[in-house]
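User: quick one, sequence for these tokens?
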């Protein structure tokens, strides 16, 4: 019964809400976590009380989950019980007034322009894999793509003559994003090599030497390795996305344009990059202005 209700909710998120596969996977993981805790404690999900949900949150706080992960868990549970209430399985939601942990002020990690150049030079472009990876790095920094968007990008989604691409982001929303001149040139070089491979039967832009679509994990691992190689610890695909947005804002790009390019539904999500820029300027002032102390 519990599993069916969770399955119905996930189906609702996919069909009615149009959420992406990644978002649905995250909701599924969260609800499995709650189900496991409820089963361990002999509690039926459908009869869960507000007090029992609070006990679950207290148990979570003893673990190593980040505050953002806890907030997402609470959001997932709220949505699930709201669905059960609307669908007539319960009369009131035990999660309605459950408070998520307070959101702290978070500044995403980004690379400066010198560090970006160091990273871009890491792949050995004399090899097939290195040329592909250089094209990936250039494109992700040039266009601010999420790693899932880069993985799912099809050749037909590129218009290199116009310097734009079309991608499907969160919530299955389609957007068009500019591609910088440097990225266009590296993509053209990569495509020449890709078209010589006879074993490719997929339309994905980025493929392995065996002709298979790349995975998010593989791109994440390779970018981290390139970062480590040039002394930049903890570099990830999202670091390139943060760098893309930060550099646009630092160079006075309109925040609404940045929001559109990133595919953010809410402008407040994009405004974090103005805070990054403010912090960056403040540090420069404190480090170099003689009257800052």
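Assistant:
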């Amino acid at each position: 019964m519990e599993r069916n209700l969770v399955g119905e909710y996930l189906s609702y998120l996919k069909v009615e809400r149009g959420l992406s596969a990644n978002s649905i996977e995250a909701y599924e993981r969260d609800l499995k976590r709650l189900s496991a805790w409820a089963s361990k404690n002999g509690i039926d999900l459908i009869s869960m009380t507000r007090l029992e949900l609070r006990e679950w949150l207290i148990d979570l706080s003893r673990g190593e989950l980040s505050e953002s992960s806890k907030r997402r868990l609470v959001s997932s549970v709220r949505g699930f019980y709201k669905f059960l209430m609307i669908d007539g399985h319960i009369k009131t939601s035990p999660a309605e007034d459950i408070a998520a942990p307070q959101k702290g002020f978070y500044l995403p990690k980004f690379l400066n322009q010198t560090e970006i150049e160091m990273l871009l030079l890491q792949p050995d472009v004399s090899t097939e894999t290195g040329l592909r990876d250089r094209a990936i790095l250039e494109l992700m920094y040039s266009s601010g793509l999420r790693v899932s968007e880069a993985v799912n990008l099809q050749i037909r989604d590129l218009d290199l003559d116009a310097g734009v691409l079309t991608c499907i982001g969160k919530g299955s929303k389609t957007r068009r994003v500019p591609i910088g001149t440097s990225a266009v040139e590296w993509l053209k070089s990569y495509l020449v090599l890709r078209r010589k491979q006879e074993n490719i039967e997929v339309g994905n832009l980025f493929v392995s030497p065996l002709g298979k679509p790349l995975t998010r994990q593989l791109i994440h691992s390779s970018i981290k390795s390139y970062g480590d190689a040039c002394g930049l610890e903890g570099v990830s695909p999202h670091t390139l996305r943060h760098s893309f947005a930060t550099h646009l804002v630092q160079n006075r790009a309109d925040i609404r344009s940045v929001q559109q390019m990133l595919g953010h539904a809410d402008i407040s999500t994009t405004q974090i990059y103005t805070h990054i820029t403010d912090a960056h300027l403040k540090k420069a002032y404190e480090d170099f202005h003689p009257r800052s102390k």
